[in-house]
Amino acid sequence: MEITEVIRRGILTEKTSALQQLDNGRGTVIPQYTFEVAVAANKFQIKQAVEAMFNVKVVRVNTMRMPGKARQIRTRKGIYRAEAHPWKKAIVTLAEGESIAQLQP
Question: Domain 3-98 has what CATH class?
Answer without folding.
Answer: alpha beta
